[in-house]
Each structure stands twice: as C-alpha cells, then as structure tokens.
Design goal:
Blueprint (H helix, E strand, L loop, with lengths): L14 E4 L5 E6 L5 E8 L13 H8 L11 H8 L3 E6 L4 E8 L3 H18 L2 H20 L6 H9 L14 H6 L2 H11 L5 E7 L3 H12 L24 E7 L5 E8 L5 H14 L5 H9 L3 E9 L6 E9 L5 H17 L4 H19 L2 H15 L8 H6 L3 H11 L5 E8 L10 E3 L2
Parallel strand pairs: 2-6, 7-11
Antiparallel strand pairs: 1-2, 3-5, 3-6, 4-5, 7-12, 8-10, 8-11, 9-10
Helix pairs in contact: 1-4, 3-8, 9-12, 9-15, 10-11, 11-15
Length: 443
C-alpha cells in the first residue's frame, strides 16, 4: 500500500548566533499573526543535582517568579498578563525552561523581564522567599504525587530503571529532606553556577524584526557575565538493558488495579528512539491501536491503555506503559496480554496499514505543533541545547516518516524483553490508608 499523501512541512527559517558572553540567540520571523514567543532554556535539570541537594532545579523554577533586582515579587507574571500575554516555566531531568507569548509590540518587555531575573535574581532572594517557595514545592509534591491516586508511578519506574548512583535516578521534584536542609548559600551557589548566559539558549519566534530583537537582546543580556565553571556530568553511560525484571506492588487508595510498565531505551536523538515513537502509535495510538483493540475493545479486560516514550539524554531513555484493570478481571490476565503485544511487535513485522496509520498520526501532530510560535520557540531552544543543532526542527518529521517495519521490529525486540522490564502494580487497599498515602510492598 502506498503511503498517505503528505502535506508540505513548513521550513523554519532562523538566525543562530552567540553574544560575547556566549548566550545563544535564535530568531525566527513569522509575520502571520501579531504575536511573538520568547523561550529560554537553561542547561540544568534534576540530573545536575548532587546527593543531598536534590530538588534545587525545580525549586528555582518557582523562585524565578518571586522577583529580581528591578521586579517585585510575583510582578513578572502580572506584567506579562497585563500586556495581554502568558508566561510559565517547567523543569525536567535535563533542562529548565521559561517562556512568554506576548503581543509583538510587547517583545521588549518580555526580554527585559527574562534578562533581569538572569542578572539580578539573587538581589531579591531572601530567607522569606526561599521558605515560601519551599512550602509551595512541598504542597505540590503532596497534591501531585503523594495524595493522588497512582501519583508516584513515574518516580517509581524512574527509580527502578536508573541505578541510585545515576543522575537520572531521583525525581525532579527532589527530596523534601534535602529542600528542608537547603540554605540561602546553597541555592545561591546553584543559581550562580547554572543560571548564566553561557548555559542558556534564547529563542524568539513570531512577528518580530530580527535586527531590533538582536539589539534588545544585546542591550539587556549583553552585560551579564558568563559562569566561569559549569561542572561536567561526567560518565553517565548505562548498559542498554536492565539485565533482570524488576517488580513492585503498591497497595494504595486507588479505585482499580493498574499496571505500569517501564523499559530502558536508547537516548533521545538515536534513530532507534524515533522508531520507538512510531511503535508507540501502533501499540496505543488511539482506538485503532493494537493494545486498545485487544485489551479494551475485544477482550474487554482493561479500562484504558497507554504507551509513553520518554526521551532523555545521558545514559538511556524510558518507555513507560500502563493498563487499568477492568472490575472483576484478574490483574495477571491484563499484564500477560499487555506484555504479549509488546513482545509480538519484536517477532512479527507490522503491517503496511499499521505503518501508514502511525505515520499519519505523527505527521498530524507534528504539523499542528509547528503552526504555533510558542512550540517552534521551545523546539529551537531544545534542539540547540540537547543536540547543538536547532535545524533538527526541520528534519525531525522526516526522521519519523523514514521509520520502516524492520526498524520497529528490531527496536521492539531490543527493548521490550523480560530482562529489561519493570512492572509496578497498584492494587486497592482493603483497609483505609493513612493520610500521608498508601502502604508500599515490594513483590
């Protein structure tokens, strides 16, 4: 069967340069709508933390909105919103990013705000702000992980897939004991080390004059000094497979049993990871996928199914999966069916129809994403930070569409094997659990 007719993917044109202080600046003009996106990636995440000082990267995501030398507490967000824009930030294992989307005539404001907190955040950081945001992070941990049904599943898979000595082992939100012990000197040192122009990529995308944008960036960021010694992560390599299956049973206040599956996988940027992303669409991409068709529609043993390839850098990525057991069904039956479908992918080539469908789903998602200026800004910063090559934005879709049946079968056989598998099973508690969460027992 011939492939679906392809739409012409947009080619993202951009400039790429560095200031004297080594800030990387990427500018992409798009005058379709009078908006502009600003996205700055700092090459620091939870994997850059050291034992005893976890959670700092995520803590700074919060602290960065608490004021700087010329911006009052919480004023950054208020100024952006008053200008008709939106702003936020996120933290992950290998990066922290901050972003604003504003009307194009407000670009200078967004750049000034980002520069002010890069240059002068420590002028506003005091014990009160640190204590306040430490409590905010604790509440986030309680509401998002500790007291949410199945809330800690990702952290559990992460802990099993990466050994304790590896920087990807601990969750991004960190240890509450470490955050409690953090002093102003500790967090100030962390900021001075990593929040520097030579550790950042600034992307500006949208209705912008590139010459004017560069002038503003030079004006507001150009005098910020580089960090003289950003530490290296060292050797973070890992064996490609775990070497043995790992299992855990979690007894918690959950409505139904649910299996979570984890596999160690090739790193982000490896063509095999591209193949895994296509494979995920074949396995669990909507109602026509293999897992949904078998477990949900035909055998009716699961409420829902999902597969999540989680691209990481430094040692290995993850593939995570889940299946919620239908009431009255033996959880072992669901686990066995889920694993059979993953293992079958490594034994038999996918059909032409499945491959066309998976490519179509990915192409639709990619083209829709590239229509948004905020997404383009984020991807340009990401590809520059992770691969030192922002032009990957123009090649990634073709990489996905080049994946064939043979590549899917090969990577499935390599990754979805019993000695590379983690299974975390949540089961409903028979007695009321304590207010702090459910009881965990290792199987």
């Amino acid at each position: 069967m011939e492939d679906l007719d392809r739409m012409t993917a947009p080619h993202v044109r951009f400039t790429d340069e560095r200031l004297a202080n080594r800030l990387r600046l990427i500018v992409s003009e798009d005058h379709l709508a009078p908006v502009v996106a600003v996205c700055i990636w700092y090459d620091v995440g939870s994997r850059h933390e050291v034992p005893g000082k976890t959670g700092f990267a995520h803590l700074f995501e919060h602290v960065m909105f608490q004021g700087s030398g010329h911006v009052a507490k919480a004023e950054h967000m208020a100024l952006v919103q008053a200008a008709g824009g939106a702003a936020n930030g996120t933290t992950f294992l290998y990066r922290t990013n901050y972003f604003e989307t504003v009307p194009s005539h407000q670009l200078e404001l967004a750049l000034w705000l980002e520069a002010d907190r890069m240059a002068t955040l420590l002028d506003a950081l005091n014990q009160e702000n640190l204590d306040n945001q430490r409590d905010v992070v604790k509440n986030e941990k309680r509401s998002s992980y500790d007291n949410r049904p199945y809330g800690a599943w990702f952290h559990k898979l992460q802990g099993h897939l990466f050994p304790p000595e590896h920087p990807n082992h601990h969750p991004t939100i960190g240890s509450m004991d470490d955050l409690d012990a953090a002093s102003l000197d500790d967090v100030s040192t962390f900021f001075r080390t990593y929040y520097a122009p030579n550790n950042a990529v600034l992307s500006i995308v949208g209705d912008v004059d590139a010459t004017q944008a560069r002038a503003w960036v030079e004006r507001y960021f150009g005098e910020i000094p580089a960090s003289p010694a950003i530490p290296s992560l060292g050797d973070v390599s890992l064996p490609p497979i775990l070497g043995a299956e790992k299992r855990e049973v979690v007894v918690d206040r959950v409505p139904l049993p649910r299996h979570f599956f984890g596999f160690r996988a090739p790193v982000l940027g490896d063509p095999r990871f591209d193949a895994l992303e296509v494979a995920a669409q074949i396995l669990a991409g909507g109602k026509g996928s293999r897992l949904h068709r078998r477990l949900v529609r035909v055998e009716r043993i699961a409420q829902d199914v999902a597969i999540y390839p989680v691209g990481l850098v430094g040692g290995a990525s993850m593939v995570a999966g889940q299946a919620t057991v239908r009431p009255g069904v033996d959880p072992a039956v669901v686990e066995r069916a889920f694993e059979e479908e993953l293992e079958r992918l490594g034994r038999e080539p996918v059909t032409d129809d499945e491959l066309v469908r998976a490519r179509g789903l990915i192409e639709t998602y990619e083209l829709e994403a590239l229509q948004r200026v905020d997404e383009r800004a984020d991807r340009l910063s990401m590809f520059a930070t992770v691969f030192d090559d922002p032009d990957v934005i123009n090649r990634q879709l073709d990489r996905y569409l080049a994946v064939g049946a043979a590549e899917i079968q090969a990577v499935a056989a390599e990754v979805f094997r019993p000695d590379n598998r983690v299974v975390v099973t949540y089961v409903p508690a028979t007695e009321p659990a304590a207010a702090t969460g459910g009881e965990e027992t290792a199987a």
